Input
Amino acid sequence: MDYSARRLFLAPLLALAAGSAAALGGQWLICRAGPAVCPNDWLTGALKGLLFAALFASTLWVLERRAAVEMLSQLRDLRQPRP
Output
């Protein structure tokens, strides 16, 4: 079996780095905005979770769009009845 480790791991690693940077940067910005928000664990957790998920998903979509569209078309073909 022949595979490329770069093609397999590069997009998820870049998405992980972008999501992590956005989550930590968002937390830093919100803590600088007001002292009442930073100690609230629920607000900072929700902010980090939303920022991470949004940036992770969008980065993966940008980098792996062609493969995702191809997989979705293959799934669509499986659902169609064969004559």
The mean pLDDT is 88.
